[in-house]
Amino acid sequence: MAHFGLDERIMLPNRRNDILTVGELLVDMISTDYDADHESFQYQKFFGGSPSNIALNARKLGVRTLVAASVGEDGFGKFLIDRLRNAGIGTDCVQAVDVSTSLVVVNKSQSTPIPIFYRGADYHLGYNAQLEEALFNSNIVHFSCWPISKVPARHTIERVVESAKKHGAIIGFDPNYHPMIWQRGEDGVAYVKSMIAKADIVKPSEDDAERLFGQDTPARQIEKFLKLGAKLVILTLGKDGAIVSNGKETISFGTRATEVVDTTGAGDAFWSGFYAAVVKGYTIRESLSLGFAVSAYKLRFTGAIVDLPELEAIKDMYGLQEEWI
Amino acid sequence: MAHFGLDERIMLPNRRNDILTVGELLVDMISTDYDADHESFQYQKFFGGSPSNIALNARKLGVRTLVAASVGEDGFGKFLIDRLRNAGIGTDCVQAVDVSTSLVVVNKSQSTPIPIFYRGADYHLGYNAQLEEALFNSNIVHFSCWPISKVPARHTIERVVESAKKHGAIIGFDPNYHPMIWQRGEDGVAYVKSMIAKADIVKPSEDDAERLFGQDTPARQIEKFLKLGAKLVILTLGKDGAIVSNGKETISFGTRATEVVDTTGAGDAFWSGFYAAVVKGYTIRESLSLGFAVSAYKLRFTGAIVDLPELEAIKDMYGLQEEWI
Questions:
Q1: Residue B80 confidence (pLDDT) above 70
Q2: pTM of the full structure
Q3: In 3D, which of A306, A312, A324, A182 has the Cα closest to residue A254?
Q4: Which of A322, B135, B156, B305 has a Cα at 20 to 30 A from B171?
Q5: Which parts of B155-261 are beta strand (E)?
Q6: CB B254 within 8 A of CB B210
Q7: Nearest-5° angle of CA B276, CA B278, CA B280?
Q8: Which chain B residues are within 8 Å of A78, Cβ to Cβ?
Q9: Whose CA is closest to A304, among A48, A112, A113?
Q10: Cis link prior to B152 (omega < 30° from 0)?
Q11: Overall fold of domain A17-24+51-95+127-324
Q12: Taking 80 as the threshold, does the pLDDT of residue B293 lie above it?
């Protein structure tokens, strides 16, 4: 298994698919007006779900992606599947179940939005032959806290992680723990920690770290993730950039954002840029830089999904051939 | 207990409240464009839930109403409670629970819309002291198939029906059975029939009757409801009006609608007009006529909730002083 030396390239075997995201594929219903708590009359429907956004972005950046997810047998499920197809992403691993497609209602807010969650089809994701086949043929597997927050999807992720380890795939995990999506009456924090132990790469925000470990300095938070077993920890600090450590080397990244129009999906943009770069043979350090460049590019536009160019175009745009940090 | 003679008035005891509706209070998210299956981009948020619409309408028609329902501790729940308050309806029986406020996404359609149901807070309605007090002080209790379609709300309705019978309240039940809202793997039809047996007044549509009993003539469908134990059966036939029977007398009503702009909420408008008239001392026959007049009035406007005048104004508008059928 890769040890994520910052100036090394990860040698990936020759497989049919680069990145497989497993988890939420859902509709975001976002208010057209800014409001504090869902006073809005008008809402607009968007493709959503963090891992699905990552797959869509990474595909645009020029790598091969697959989405494993569960949607309802309804108009919203059809809308999401159509969007994946139009982006050239295979949908063999999208399962249709007899439960409404999951929905998140979001108030557009100048402070922190308060989403209302409608968990439906998403957490009914099962482990089946199509998912296993996709796993065997993928080099990177990615998921967030959504599918592990409820059974039966949690059991599916447990089998996904087991299979991914057996087949030498890199496991990326977004420890975006929030009690609001967690199964009631259960200690989500302990479970998320057990999952960090199994992951290769984690990208917590400072808020994520605080919800998991309490308040502490960035350096000490990173230590806690490493101690649990994560091999590469990317702690994002909002406008202050990020700190990354593999336990031996630690580097800081300033933000590359020059213009911030909308922060929605900036984290997903990072993941997709970082993964795409790893797949394309850049070093970890270069891949991190490219991830932050893609994120900065996304920040200039509204919405979680923006019209990304190929990774190399963004690399040129941010002058990344000369200077890598 | 009243036997619903068509030319009789129901003598109601002197109680603090006229109509208590128990059940769904939720947000309807309706597409702004006509579409076949949720292709729409834009949606608008409305106050919804059939019994809650009935309470709001009946209040406008000039009688006292209360709503017993369960909403989430979120912006949508707050929006619904505010709407009730603004209409002058007490909200002591609206329970707030740690589950998202129920939501129905509806595509505006020229044929039959295909709603997507997000059942959340609504079916967590519990039987508590406030609900019992409201029951003891109400003359009419109304509910639909929603709360009986899932536990724990079903158990609450069972206690409501028991208490209502003990206290001599009239029980109105909308047998709007649909497998899509029913708890999976359970025979909803059998349960709905057991509830019809306990109700005084039921208002099935022809589609409801068919889902419960299979296809048959209107006269024979009415017989089946009466045989189960309902005392007054109002079978609606869309543009062909309605047939009403108490087992001894049967009458037909032609539609009073002259202009049909939007059929949404026409049934709820009927219920509210009928109940308001019963409360105001009209005979059953007169109350039915007034119900159909209120429904015809509603059909002229868009939306489930329209700005109804007092019942007497609608009575005059439709010339109901001379001719009662």
A1: yes
A2: 0.92
A3: A324
A4: B305
A5: 170-174, 201-202, 232-236, 242-245, 250-253
A6: no
A7: 70
A8: 37-38
A9: A48
A10: yes
A11: UDP-N-acetylmuramoyl-L-alanine:D-glutamate ligase (3.40.1190)
A12: yes
At B112, the amino acid letter reads T
Residue A109's alpha-carbon distances to A35, A183, B197, B251, in angstroms, are 6, 26, 50, 56
Q: Residue B274 — φ and ψ, nearest 5°?
A: -65, -50
Pairwise pLDDT comparison (A142 vs B35), residue with the higher score? A142
- HEC string for A194-237: HHHCCCCEECCEHHHHHHHHCCCCHHHHHHHHHHHCCCEEEEEC
Contact B75 A38 (CB under 8 A): yes
pLDDT at residue number A322 = 56
Contacting residues for A316 by C-beta, under 8 A, at least 6 apart: none
Angle (CA) B14 B16 B22, round 5°: 115
Q: What angle do CA B210, B212, B214 make, to 5 degrees?
A: 45
pLDDT in tens, B182-224: 988 898 999 999 999 999 999 999 999 999 999 999 999 999 9
Q: Residue A29: its chain B contacts at CB < 8 A?
A: 29, 43
Residue B93 confidence (pLDDT): 98
DSSP state of B125: -
Question: Three-class SS of residue B119?
Answer: coil
Distance from CA of A127 to the nearest CA of B (A): 22
Rounded distance, CA A272 to CA B252, Å? 66
Nearest C-alpha of chain A: how many angstroms from B145? 19
Query: Residue B318 is which amino acid?
Result: Y
Coil, strand or helix at A36: coil
What was the pLDDT predicted at A2?
Answer: 59
What ipTM does the predicted assembly reach?
0.89
Q: Say whether residue B73 is in contact with chain A using an 8 A CB cutoff.
A: no
Chain A residues touching residue B40 (CB < 8 angstroms): 45
Farthest CA pair distance, chain B: 53
Mutant choice from B105, B124, B182 vs A, greatest count of A C-beta within 10 A: B105
Collect the ranges in chain A with pLDDT lower than 70: 1-2, 322-325
* CA-based end-to-end distance of chain A: 25
- Report the helix count and the strand count for chain B, using DSSP H and E: 10, 13
Does residue B250 register a pLDDT over 80?
Answer: yes
Closest CB to B41: pick one of A38, A44, A78.
Answer: A44
| A64 vs B111, residue with greater confidence | A64
Longest alpha-carbon distance in chain A: 53
* A222 vs A196: CA distance, rounded Å: 12
Q: Given this model, what pLDDT does residue B34 score?
A: 83
Whole-number pLDDT of residue A253: 94
Whether B44 and chain A come into contact, CB under 8 Å, resolves to yes
Closest to A270 (Cα-Cα) out of A50, A7, A113, A86: A50
